[in-house]
């Protein structure tokens, strides 16, 4: 039996058989002074009994308690969002420990910061059980008729006591609505409070008279809905008077004032914000990816004159508000686990468990109904469910490739399509606990910031060809071309990374496949390659959505030669004449004509590259920052095409840097490497402390398990040598998921390197990929890492690996005595060795 505790009103204590340790007491009142009438006797009694009294202050109303030495006051800031607020309260309750007594400000005041009844209910749902476990007594209040029935029902279900308080004709009445685990024949009648007495009102005439005098309202709309409904009325006002209303709505859709917020305020009107809000499912922020896409489109529409309007494909996206993410966690009972994972010691420890749970939860019925209505709108059009977290696609933090995007082919019965959609949403949510995302937040100092996950749902751009659905082309674009290989190239003209079909191959480093790099100052210019290598360094596989299989698939290019693409296929592919000639020479005439995806006619005969160059230039000018976009394009003819701008974000770069004077190289044997082009990071002169080199032949001989062990060991060295200038050289592609193509490190395992080099080894079969524009590239650029590809054996390229291998290998010293991989991983001190690069002459040198 829990100890009985007094409310400070002895007569009312008898009505409810006293309070119990663990009770949460919610007062439903008409005003803050009414609530204060109940707080004062409770606090006075608690202090008289020597209880530890805590006041949690967050409301804009007058303080409920005056400052006093015996009362601990905590000020918690609700403007920082639900998670920060709930975590702060959890932390202070944990600190105060067992049997503390609490007074909380009115929960209704949170509406002005969160605009969401749902999140107030979520806060109560996560805080109330914790207070109960610690044998506390906590007083809360909500203002009558200010919340939805659903919010009140959730509070009633969670709390131990729910009490209606009325002030009628100067008299105070308390009407208990819920008193957990206590009962008397008169408990749930209204009671008149006279000093310390509580008089039960049982006569029907008196009860009817009391309740008929109390104003009652019908179903209360969610505060969020009310705010947007009122904003519609402001559309009739002059533009200047609309501005404060617009900014108020932006605070709850876009976030706190920031550089991105101000850009949005500059380009979005109140009507724009209301149109966006009309397509939101649930409540909360839209997230960075949605905001970036919407802002970029608005810039092109507003500042581009008529240049882009004809070429832009309309969008009809939906946005799953960030509040759904927290509601999903709270209502499935995982908030305590989430709180433990947010601590420094639990950050990695509890993430796998939370990730597994996020893949298996249930959504509330109200959210499920909204999901269904959205899917009914899309019908059987393929859709993509994309992450749009609060920190994503902002200045300085792209989170490129860290969270999932899931294609839904969206075929089958409504029930099957709904199930696939829910699974996709869960997958995106679970990706917040993925290793790459955790590492990214840790290395960029974002662990303590709220990373709420909103979701962008887009209709997949494209059309149906045979049984497949895909866009003609897709890719990424950058307004600054930092990866240049010819001194005549214009850095500010921008570049594209272009593929045929879905854009997945444009953002990933794919096995045996290469996206087309397009320099927008001269779209026909090819990256450096040997004669006859154009086929080798081109795209061979195409990603599509198979409507018959209801799934994402990749197909060989040859399958598309027979497809009716509804436009001349010569825009995208040409006959591979070199292969045709070779086949003829050996007498083979029975083989289908081979094609190569070179995009020659697209880049030379259409307005597409010029349009993309102008688009990137305008967006970069407005952002006053380099930008990175994702796009698709679909063609009806050479001159009739539509570009779908899917994403736009600031692209963090460190610029070209000052011109560097390169040392004279009298003998090519006097350097570790030198070359022309194939580097990224501007003009540099970097003195090295250490060099780590992975020997290609020795690496090739390892088992797959041992190749992964090499990657993990690189991660150890990355941590041990943090703060040093380290150059990491290895065979093929860093960060590949396929060990036969290179070392399968996660980016966090190479994030502290000053220089990363990918070395070609013809004998071992390793080849770098100049993956400008991929997610790997984004990580390198954001981290300020200098990148170089060393094509050993090509003209103007020198690589003297022996100058590293002939030095003492100190791997054991650097990795805590572990030298099992010393024959593969060479770590050498590099005192006096420097790396130089010069953009003008396109020279890179390590000497």
UniProtKB/TrEMBL annotation:
Domain of life: Archaea
Keyword terms of this UniProt record: Kinase, Pyruvate, Transferase
UniProt keyword RNA-binding present: no
Signal sequence bounds: none
Keyword Cell cycle included in the entry's annotation: no
Residue ranges of every copy of the Pyruvate phosphate dikinase AMP/ATP-binding domain listed in the record: 286-654
Any GO molecular function: ATP binding
Protein name: Phosphoenolpyruvate synthase/pyruvate phosphate dikinase
Taxonomic source organism: Methanoregula formicica (strain DSM 22288 / NBRC 105244 / SMSP)
Top-level taxonomy: Archaea, Methanobacteriati, Methanobacteriota, Stenosarchaea group, Methanomicrobia
């Amino acid at each position: 039996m829990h100890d009985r505790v007094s409310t400070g009103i002895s007569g009312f204590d008898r009505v409810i058989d006293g309070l119990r340790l663990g009770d949460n007491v919610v007062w439903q009142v008409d005003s803050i002074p009414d609530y204060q009438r109940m707080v004062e006797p409770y606090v006075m009694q608690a202090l008289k009994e020597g209880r530890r009294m805590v006041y949690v202050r967050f409301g804009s109303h007058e303080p409920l308690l005056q400052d006093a030495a015996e009362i601990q006051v905590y000020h918690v800031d609700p403007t920082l969002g639900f998670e920060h607020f709930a975590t702060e309260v959890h932390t202070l309750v944990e600190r105060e420990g067992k049997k503390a007594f609490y007074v909380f400000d009115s929960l209704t005041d949170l509406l002005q910061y969160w605009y969401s009844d749902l999140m107030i209910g979520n806060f109560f749902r996560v805080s109330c059980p914790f207070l109960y476990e610690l044998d506390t007594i906590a007083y809360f209040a909500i203002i009558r008729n200010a919340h939805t029935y659903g919010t009140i029902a959730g509070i009633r279900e969670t709390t131990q006591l729910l009490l209606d308080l009325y002030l009628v004709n100067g008299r105070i009445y308390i009407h208990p609505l819920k008193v957990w685990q206590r009962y008397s024949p008169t408990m749930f009648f209204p009671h008149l409070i006279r000093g310390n007495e509580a008089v039960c009102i049982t006569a029907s005439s008196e009860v009817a008279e009391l309740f008929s005098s109390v104003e009652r309202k019908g179903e209360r709309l969610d505060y969020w809905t009310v705010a947007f409904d009122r904003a519609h009325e402001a559309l009739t006002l002059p533009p200047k008077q609309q501005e404060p209303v617009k900014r108020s709505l932006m605070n709850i859709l876009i976030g706190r004032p920031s550089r991105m917020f101000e850009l949005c305020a500059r380009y979005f009107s109140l009507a724009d914000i209301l149109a966006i809000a009309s397509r939101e499912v649930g409540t909360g922020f839209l997230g960075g990816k949605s905001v970036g896409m919407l802002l970029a489109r608005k810039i092109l529409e507003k500042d581009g004159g008529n240049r882009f309007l004809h070429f832009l494909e309309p969008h009809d996206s939906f946005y799953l508000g960030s509040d759904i993410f927290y509601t999903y966690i709270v209502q499935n009972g995982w908030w305590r686990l989430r709180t433990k994972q947010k601590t420094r010691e639990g950050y990695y420890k509890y993430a796998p468990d939370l990730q597994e749970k996020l893949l298996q939860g249930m959504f509330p019925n109200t959210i499920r109904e909204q999901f269904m209505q959205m899917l009914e709108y899309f019908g059987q059009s393929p859709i993509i469910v994309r992450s749009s977290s609060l920190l994503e696609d902002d200045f300085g933090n792209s989170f490129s490739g860290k969270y999932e995007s899931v294609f839904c082919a969206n075929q089958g019965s409504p029930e099957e399509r709904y199930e696939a959609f829910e699974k996709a949403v869960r997958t995106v949510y679970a990706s917040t606990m993925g290793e790459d995302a955790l590492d990214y937040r840790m290395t960029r100092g974002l662990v303590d910031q709220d990373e709420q996950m909103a979701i962008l749902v887009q209709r997949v751009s494209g059309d149906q060809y045979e049984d497949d659905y895909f866009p003609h082309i897709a890719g990424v674009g950058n307004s600054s071309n930092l990866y240049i290989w010819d001194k005549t190239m214009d850095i500010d003209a921008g570049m594209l990374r272009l593929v045929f079909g879905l854009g997945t191959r444009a953002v990933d480093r794919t096995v045996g496949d290469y996206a087309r790099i397009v320099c927008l100052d001269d779209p026909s210019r090819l990256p450096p390659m040997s004669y006859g290598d154009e086929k080798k360094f081109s795209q061979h596989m195409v990603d599509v959505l198979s409507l018959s299989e209801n799934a994402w698939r990749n197909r060989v290019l040859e399958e598309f030669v027979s497809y009716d693409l509804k436009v001349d296929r010569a825009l995208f592919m040409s006959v591979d004449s070199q292969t045709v000639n070779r086949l003829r020479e050996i007498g083979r005439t029975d083989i289908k004509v081979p094609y190569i995806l070179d995009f020659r006619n697209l880049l030379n005969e259409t307005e597409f590259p010029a349009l993309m160059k102008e688009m990137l230039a305008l967006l970069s000018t407005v952002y006053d920052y380099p930008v990175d976009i994702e796009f698709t394009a679909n063609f009806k003819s050479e001159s009739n095409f539509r570009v779908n701008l899917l994403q736009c974000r600031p692209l963090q770069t460190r610029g070209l840097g000052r011109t560097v004077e390169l040392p004279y190289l009298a003998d090519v044997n006097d350097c570790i490497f030198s070359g022309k082009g194939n580097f990224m990071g501007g003009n540099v002169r970097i003195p090295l402390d250490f060099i780590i080199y992975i020997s290609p032949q020795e690496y090739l001989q390892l088992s797959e398990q041992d190749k992964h062990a090499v990657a993990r060991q690189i991660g150890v060295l990355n941590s041990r040598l943090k703060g040093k200038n380290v150059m990491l050289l290895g065979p093929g592609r860093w960060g590949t998921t396929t060990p036969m193509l290179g070392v399968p490190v996660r980016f966090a395992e190479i994030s502290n390197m000053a220089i990363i080099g990918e070395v070609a080894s013809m004998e071992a079969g390793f080849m770098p990929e100049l993956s400008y524009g991929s997610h790997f590239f984004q990580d390198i650029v954001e981290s300020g890492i200098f990148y170089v590809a060393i094509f050993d054996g090509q003209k103007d390229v020198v690589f003297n690996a022996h100058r590293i291998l002939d030095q003492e290998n100190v791997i054991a010293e650097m990795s805590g005595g572990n030298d099992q991989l010393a024959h593969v991983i060479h770590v050498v001190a590099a005192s006096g060795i420097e790396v130089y690069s010069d953009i003008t002459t396109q020279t890179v040198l390590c000497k």
